[in-house]
Amino acid sequence: MSVHHWAAAAVVIFSLGFLDTAAPAAAKGPSAHDEARAIIAAAQAIAPGGIDELKEVEIGGIKQWIHVRGNNPANPILLVLHGGPGVPMMPESWTFQRPWEDFFTVVQWDQRGAGKTFAAAKRQIDKSITVDRMQADAEELIELLRRTYGKDQIFLMGYSWGSILGVRVAQHHPEWLYAYVGVGQVVDFKRQEAVGYQQTLAEAEAVGNKAAIKELKSIAPYPNPDGSLSLSKVSTERKWDVALGGMMYGKAVDTEFQGMALSPDYTDEDNKAEELGVGSTVALLLPQLYTLSFDGISTFKCPVVFFAGASDRTTPETLVEEFYNRIQAPAKKFVKFDRAAHDVMTDAPGEMLMHLVLDVRPLAP
Known about the structure:
This protein is of the alpha/beta class. The protein has one domain (about 5-10, about 45-190, about 255-365): Alpha/Beta hydrolase fold, catalytic domain (Rossmann fold, 3-Layer(aba) Sandwich). Helices cover about 40% and strands about 15% of the residues. It contains 13 helices and eight strands. Strands 1-2-4-3-5-6-7-8 form an eight-stranded mixed sheet, sandwiched between helices. Helix 4 packs across helix 5 (about 160-170) and helix 6 (about 190-205) runs antiparallel to helix 7 (about 210-220). The longest helix is centred in the last third of the chain and has 22 residues, at about 270-290. The chain is globular and about 55 Å long.
């Protein structure tokens, strides 16, 4: 999760009752963004006979948004569970996803409290959000996709926060999955934060960044001894994680928002809802993650593939590899991307596509 989103969350937690729920301003003429979105949409168009459905569906008793895209309806479905929590991948997916659609029917989903789904809820905070509720939503969506598109099984990809839901679904309903793919996999929240913090501090010391060293030391101990974290501490850690290249490889800023601003799937109002939704979602879900751990899991009943960036300090690659080494599964694969951090799909899009095609796609008949 980027520093932008954690910073937004830190602000919103103090103003949960004061999100902007007013009606949007009167419509204006097309903006430069609108014109760019139209050009991108045309360039990304699916050929006749393929699938391109941006639609609202009912999941968990509310309207939620999905985008289903693929060049060949015969291809297997790949459902992507986005990160955050509350940070949709749909608006940035146009920057890397198009080649995937030759091999999979890809489903992007704005989860409860995120993006277009949060906009559909009129930016109202859903105080019922729990990890269990989000898992139930994911499972309901999988059932809907299997029924709608006539598929007995699908591929499930969990990214960052989404990898928490992904593991839980894979454990609960392995029979629905050709395979589970974890990208930026969460293993144990407390250890993840402790290891990532120490790696970020070590990088700051290695490059002699005095401002980073001072701020990072000021938030010690990180996390707190009971595993808890304040949003202000997390925001400080993520700020320097990003600035020192732990989010996007070799970049001191997280550039995903430039792509989101031009998304053909999103309007300016959707982008505003995305910014607001993340704050409320993190505020409700973060305290539920303090004790989250998959250390007790030793077996998967479906194939498992992990993609990990070698420079990832948000979900450190070392913890993912340890998890991979100790689990049993019908088939398993660990792929480390040497020139990637947390955002593997944008850091190494060609490599990721290659491994999706060579290591994941063959797991479907």
